[in-house]
Amino acid sequence: MPATPVPRRLIGAGLLAAVLASGCATTTAPPAPDAIEDVAPAFEPDAPQMIPVVRYGRYTLVELAPTTAQRDLLLQTIDVSMPEDTRATVGDGLRHVLKRSGYQLCETAHAAIELYALPLPAAHLHLGPMTLRDALVTLAGPGWELHADDRTRQVCFERPGEKPSQAAIAPEPPASETAQAFPVAGGRP
């Protein structure tokens, strides 16, 4: 008697059932009680740090903490275009980048005077977006090291291998400032 053809759907369903049944039939024995290792507990923080927040608008919560760029001013992001001047120097570019940054360029470093006098390359007429530190290093070039005095907020450049001189970093009081006596109640200074 001739074999009757089996529909392909039945063959596919049978194979699928066999695969599923065989996958469920395999089990592993649980480990013996003496084979269980002691595992260190997961790291649990001592106490969650509370970060103060304030509602700012209807759906926005803002953390009450300074940003990294507010803590370290040389990490602030800048995007500046230099004023187009035919005789712009690297010193002019450094001063322009430092405007409103909170830092000033140290003018007393004798070695850096030659850096400040160099012509500003056309490639440096637009800088950013980048950090202030990267912009200063880009303007100075690889032949100079950046030294920042966070106490006086001055930025100086030295040749690699030279120690930054304290005279170069120490601020000089502006000549225009003089001591003034303010009247005290009663008319005596």
SSE layout:
Blueprint (H helix, E strand, L loop, with lengths): L7 H18 L27 E3 L5 E3 L4 H4 L5 E5 L8 H9 L5 E2 L7 H5 L8 E6 H9 L4 E5 L4 E5 L7 H4 L20
Parallel strand pairs: 4-7
Antiparallel strand pairs: 1-2, 3-5, 6-7
Helix pairs in contact: 3-5
Keywords: Signal
Protein name: Integrating conjugative element protein pill, pfgi-1
InterPro entries: Integr_conj_element_PilL (IPR022260)
Summarize the structure.
This protein is of the alpha+beta class. Helix content is 26%, strand content 15%.
Helix count, per DSSP?
Answer: 6
Strand order of the largest sheet: 4-7-6
Helix content: 25-40%
Class by SSE composition: alpha+beta
- How do the SSEs run, as a string of H and E? HEEHEHEHEHEEH
Quote the beta fraction.
15-25%
Number of strands: 7
Radius of gyration: 35 Å
* Residue-averaged pLDDT: 77
Span of the ends, CA to CA: 130 Å
List low-confidence stretches.
166-189
Sheet with the most strands, sense and barrel status:
3 strands, mixed
Morphology call: elongated
Q: Would you kindly provide a written description of the structure presented here, covering whatever features stand out?
A:
This protein has a domain at 68-169. 26% of the residues lie in helices and 15% in strands. The protein has helices at 8-25, 68-71, 90-98, 113-117, 132-140, 166-169; strands at 53-55, 61-63, 77-81, 104-105, 126-131, 145-149, 154-158. The protein has a three-stranded mixed sheet, covered by helices on one side. It starts with 7 loop residues before the first helix and ends in a 20-residue tail after the last helix.
